[in-house]
User: Which sequence fits this backbone?
């Protein structure tokens, strides 16, 4: 169902009157439109001038002290109305022949109608804790933008027959347009690619820098920075398969949770500098680098400039920023390889396609699902359907074997992460088979679990940056299935419904190629004459605005005040406290031998995880030789530290700032001081 | 049967997969319907708790998969056995689309469960919305497949079906039958309205307005510029209070179906017009609009439809009289004429009338709301909005000033207060048809504006407010104009009939679950 029939709107606009006998209606329409445009433009200027009060203006309709400031808006409205009436009246009274020129001009300026709505979108304070209102407001503005751009771009040409002056103006404009096209043709053929490349380099540099700084400030966490770092370190040093000691002790394996064979690919690079920072650098490069295969794919579908635009939209995508800021994960690395697979399949480079299929499958078992769905997308869109079917079968097969057999066995016969769907598991069942049974047998119950405010907000945050372009055709529904299955169907597990986690990759991997396919479909419709070029251009305008506004509010590139990474607001850069913390920690880290077994506070684990055994104090002390903890300690960490120190198994070695280092078998002289500081009861406990 | 390739540019594998998926969806829909009927009595518990034995759950899943597989396989075999080699894929594709309506039919029974949705209004509306959209797409697909295999000027499935029904009717009754059907509906609603609890009517209406000695006092009681109600109040017509008021209210609301039928008939023919009028009578939101007011805006609906019909037929004298009577019910009806005028202004032949209508409507509203009501001391646009917009705006015009000068605040606040329920209650019974109108924003603008300025009213029970009347009346106007547009060409006529069928699919569950015709009002 098409909720808005663009072709009919187009038909109505192309019938716009230009004959003299329809002058009165043109007068009314032109005057009203001109008034609204001037009013909107004036209000926009007034809001920009009152930028300091814009937040309170939008939140509470207050401008702060000085009621005279309100006069500005009223004056703007009055002046706009007056000017427009004068202009329209003058044009129609003394210069009827200019009426068509005025009408065309007013229609071409239609985008000004939304100008008054734009400044609040670039004032983040106005929308703090009002996510639903914000996304709905953005949606309204984006829809309005699409409409006004459509009106502007499909405005009728100037009626040159009745007015030589208008013909002169029209001639000037035509010459300008011609010169613009000539310049555009003269630009280097690879300019769009270089723009994308610059964007990728900028993105990678930005995120690599800030994530590494964040990590150095001891703000990364054992889950998941520490455990992934430890896993790669053990892979490089031929430890047990997928050993990740921060996950659960010296024998813990990550295989039951995720099959990340890609760690073997990362290991040679990791060998150059064996630190979590290497992983963060690689992550930033691959996440940003995914714009390149997206561009290459898009170039085949829609030409270089639109492809570059979609690639840049990807780099600005707030869901991408959130997943990049939250430590290191394999899942967001998937699109880079998946999109290369599709590109190589499209360009029939089978060797490269095979290599990248293997790499994609190695990233993580659920990335294979994404690959399968991308194959399905090609199949349903009629783009190399046989190859798409093959990808679908390969992806689904790999996932079923890996998840259903290998990982199931590694977990001792149970499924990992099934708790994320706990309300969908029926009585007498366990594991994902139960979830699937509920979805199939009780769809209304499943629907009832999806009816949450946060799920609506999350979906809007995912789809809105793309102006819902992927959903313009039914293939969008197919592209949404992985995201639906892995995120929206979850119950009582908030991270899956936050764009500051890595799970947004389930969506972005599908939605961006679907957007390209839909843009290609639009091109076809334009070529077939079903729609005008203005229709497609209005979608592009909506896409640009949606990306910019959502990226500003939820992304990391345009403001750093409310950007989320993981559970909380992300701390960008370093301040004096960060530098001191770093120095304090460094002092203690020097005292731990490179291969020493360390148990540490959750946020300190990633600093010591590049060794065989590094544990998190949140779980237990295990067989650690060193305890490196931070004060004040959390509940579980405090209990474990006190237990170790009170029993004199460990002796406090040194204290540096908020960090304390203890060593197994070390002198316990300093223990009492720390026990009392931490509220322990050593001496009471030993008393009869 | 001509051999038109359905989509020759798309690769065969894709077409095969699409057709297979469509057939599987049809099978699943059938299975879903079977499961719904099998579990009918236990459905509310099952949906609430998801508790069921493993064996029974397996049975449900089997009943979903079995029809999907058997239906797909059956059609595949059927197409494989097609003797015309080279046309097998076309055959499969054609029949997969031709039978797409099965999907809509399979999803329908669950919406008519008597107890399942009792405590799940939002979920019911969401489900009905999805079903109506699916039904629309499915019917459109069905019609499209049929259209591609017959002459372009031939009748659609819907027209063929209605043709069979017409043939069953005696020729003399054919003209009168739609009116009789509507009359039965109207009488049913009026008689049912009489049985409504009169105590639900507030004291303002329940008690006769004792001491009404002047026109000014009558206007104060009316609360708006409804001069048509002045004699009603002055003559204390409302005694005995409750029943008389409800009878009058039901009569005015229900009889609006006749002019709506006449207006729709002039554009769409009697069959679709009858469906439109029936949908109007079934509209669940009608039962609440302004029932608690002395002379609610909703009572102007019938007069408005009649006026629109007269304006279109260029009977300007009668149109003017009826329009004035409409405005006499409530000055806010001026905005309906403003919308109608703008609609006329965009159409050939009615452009001049449209301009005059817009100018007259705006002038009337400004005159009544801006001058007459304040002069008479009627607090129609002042008290209700006090304090809703911070310390700046206190009345309608000041509120509008804020809306113009600070649109972001107004929109954001509105989004905060308006729930999804508000929009679903208004548009699901329409199957979203008004939103498909060419100038949908134009038709919705008055409702949106009054919902914005009266934002404080709507947080509780949205459909009881005056804004709902704007949405409903203009929603029907938008639906009629949309169907008119779609019915104009042979290529889009299939869309019109698909839209009408989807509307029926949406309105029946809505009136059953939310409306006052079959079940007591909520």
Assistant:
């Amino acid at each position: 169902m098409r909720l808005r029939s663009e072709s009919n709107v187009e038909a109505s606009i192309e019938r716009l009157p230009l004959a003299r006998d329809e002058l009165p209606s043109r007068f009314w329409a032109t005057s009203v439109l001109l008034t609204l445009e001037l009013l909107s433009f004036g209000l926009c200027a007034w809001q920009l001038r009152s930028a300091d009060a814009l937040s309170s203006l939008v939140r509470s309709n207050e401008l702060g002290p000085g009621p005279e400031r309100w006069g500005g808006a009223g004056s703007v409205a009055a002046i706009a109305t007056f000017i427009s009436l004068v202009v329209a009246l003058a044009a129609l009274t003394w210069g009827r022949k200019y009426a068509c020129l005025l009408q065309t001009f007013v229609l071409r300026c239609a985008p000004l109608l939304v100008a008054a709505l734009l400044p609040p979108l670039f004032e983040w304070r106005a929308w703090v804790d009002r996510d639903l209102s914000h996304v709905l407001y953005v949606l309204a503005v984006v829809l309005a933008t699409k409409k006004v751009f459509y009106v502007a771009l499909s405005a009728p040409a100037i009626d040159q027959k009745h007015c030589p002056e208008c013909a002169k103006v029209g001639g000037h404009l035509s010459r300008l347009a011609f010169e613009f096209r000539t310049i555009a043709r003269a630009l280097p053929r690879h300019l769009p690619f270089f723009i994308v490349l610059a964007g990728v380099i900028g993105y990678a540099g930005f995120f690599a820098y800030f994530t590494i700084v964040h990590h150095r400030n001891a703000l990364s966490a054992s889950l998941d920075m520490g455990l992934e770092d430890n896993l790669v370190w053990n892979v490089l040093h031929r430890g047990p398969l997928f050993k990740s000691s921060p996950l659960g002790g010296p024998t813990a394996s990550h295989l039951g949770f995720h099959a990340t064979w890609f760690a073997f690919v990362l290991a040679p690079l990791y060998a150059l500098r064996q630190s979590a920072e290497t992983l963060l650098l690689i992550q930033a490069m691959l996440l940003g680098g995914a714009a390149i295969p997206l561009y290459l794919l898009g170039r085949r579908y829609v030409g270089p400039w639109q492809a570059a635009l979609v690639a840049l939209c990807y780099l600005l995508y707030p869901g991408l920023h959130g997943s990049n800021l939250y430590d290191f994960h394999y899942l967001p690395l998937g699109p880079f390889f998946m999109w290369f697979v599709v590109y190589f399949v499209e360009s029939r480079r089978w060797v490269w396609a095979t290599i990248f299929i293997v790499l994609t499958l190695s990233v993580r078992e659920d990335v294979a699902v994404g690959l399968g769905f991308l194959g399905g997308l090609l199949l349903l869109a009629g783009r190399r359907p046989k190859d798409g079917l093959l990808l679908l079968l390969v992806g689904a097969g790999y996932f079923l074997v890996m998840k259903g057999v290998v990982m199931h066995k590694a977990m001792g016969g149970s499924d990992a992460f099934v708790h994320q769907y706990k309300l969908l598991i029926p009585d007498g069942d366990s594991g994902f088979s139960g979830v699937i049974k509920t979805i199939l047998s009780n769809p209304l119950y499943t629907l009832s679990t999806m009816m949450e405010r946060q799920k609506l907000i999350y979906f809007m945050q995912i789809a809105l940056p793309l102006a819902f372009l992927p959903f313009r055709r039914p293939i969008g529904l197919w592209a949404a299935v992985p995201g639906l299955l892995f995120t929206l169907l979850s119950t009582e597990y908030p991270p899956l419904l936050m764009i500051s986690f890595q799970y947004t990759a389930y969506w972005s991997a599908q939605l961006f190629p679907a957007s390209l396919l839909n843009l290609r479909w639009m091109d076809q419709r334009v070529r077939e004459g079903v729609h005008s070029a203005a229709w497609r251009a209005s979608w592009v305008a909506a896409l640009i605005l949606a990306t910019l506004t959502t990226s500003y509010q939820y992304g990391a590139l345009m403001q750093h005040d409310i950007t989320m990474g993981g559970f909380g607001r992300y701390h960008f850069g370093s301040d004096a406290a960060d530098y001191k913390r770093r120095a304090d920690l460094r002092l203690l880290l020097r005292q731990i031998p490179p291969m020493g077994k360390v148990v540490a506070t959750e946020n300190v684990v990633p600093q010591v995880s590049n060794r065989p055994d590094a544990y998190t104090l949140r779980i237990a002390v295990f067989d650690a030789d060193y305890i490196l903890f931070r004060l004040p300690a959390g509940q579980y960490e405090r209990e474990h530290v006190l237990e170790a120190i009170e029993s004199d198994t460990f002796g406090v070695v040194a204290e540096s700032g908020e960090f304390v280092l203890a060593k197994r078998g070390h002198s316990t002289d300093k223990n009492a001081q720390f026990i009392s500081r931490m509220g322990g009861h050593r001496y009471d406990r030993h008393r009869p | 049967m001509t051999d038109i390739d359905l989509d020759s540019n798309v690769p065969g594998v894709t077409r095969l997969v699409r057709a297979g998926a469509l057939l599987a969806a049809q099978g699943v829909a059938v299975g879903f319907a079977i499961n719904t009927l099998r579990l009918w009595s236990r459905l509310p518990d099952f949906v609430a708790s998801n508790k069921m034995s493993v064996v029974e759950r397996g049975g449900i899943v089997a009943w979903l998969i079995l029809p999907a597989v058997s239906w797909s396989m059956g059609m595949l075999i059927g197409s494989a056995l097609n003797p015309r080699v080279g046309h097998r894929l076309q055959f499969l594709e054609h029949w997969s689309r031709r039978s797409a309506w099965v999907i809509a039919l399979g999803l329908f029974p669950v919406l008519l469960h008597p107890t399942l949705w009792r405590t799940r209004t939002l979920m019911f509306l969401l489900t009905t919305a999805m079903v109506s959209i699916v039904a629309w797409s499915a019917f459109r697909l069905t019609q499209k497949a049929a259209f591609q295999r017959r002459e372009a000027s031939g009748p659609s499935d819907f027209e063929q079906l209605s043709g069979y029904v017409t043939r069953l009717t005696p020729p003399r009754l054919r003209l009168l039958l739609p009116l009789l059907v509507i009359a039965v509906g109207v009488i049913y609603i009026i008689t049912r309205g009489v049985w409504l609890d009169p105590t639900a009517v507030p004291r303002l209406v329940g008690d006769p307005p004792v001491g009404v000695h002047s026109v000014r006092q009558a206007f104060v009681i009316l609360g708006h510029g409804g001069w048509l109600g002045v004699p009603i109040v002055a003559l204390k017509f409302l005694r005995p209070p409750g029943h008389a008021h409800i009878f009058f209210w039901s009569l005015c609301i229900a009889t609006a179906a006749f002019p709506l039928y006449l207006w729709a008939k002039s554009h769409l023919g009697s069959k679709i017009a009858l469906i439109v009028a029936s949908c109007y009578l079934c509209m669940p939101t009608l039962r609440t609009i302004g029932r608690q007011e002395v002379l609610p805006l909703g009572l102007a609906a019938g007069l408005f439809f009649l006026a629109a019909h007269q304006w279109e037929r260029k009977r300007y004298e009668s149109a003017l009289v009826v329009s004035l009577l409409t405005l006499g019910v409530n000055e806010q009806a001026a905005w309906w004429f403003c919308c109608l005028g703008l609609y006329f202004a965009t159409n050939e032949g009615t452009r001049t009338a449209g301009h005059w209508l817009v100018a007259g409507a705006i002038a009337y509203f400004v005159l009544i709301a801006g001058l007459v009501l304040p002069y008479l001391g009627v607090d129609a646009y002042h008290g209700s909005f006090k304090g809703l917009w911070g310390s700046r705006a206190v009345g309608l015009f000041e509120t509008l000033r804020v809306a113009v000068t600070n649109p972001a605040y107004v929109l954001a606040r509105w989004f905060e207060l308006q729930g999804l329920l508000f929009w679903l209650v208004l548009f699901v019974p329409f199957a979203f048809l008004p939103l498909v109108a060419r100038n949908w924003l134009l038709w919705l603008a008055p409702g949106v504006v009054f919902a914005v300025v009266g934002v404080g009213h709507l947080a509780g029970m949205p459909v009881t407010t005056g804004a709902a009347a704007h949405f409903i009346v203009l929603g029907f106007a938008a639906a009629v104009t949309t169907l008119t547009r779609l019915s104009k060409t042979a290529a889009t006529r299939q869309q019109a009939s698909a839209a009408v069928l989807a509307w029926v699919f949406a309105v029946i569950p809505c009136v059953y679950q939310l409306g006052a015709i079959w079940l007591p009002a909520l």
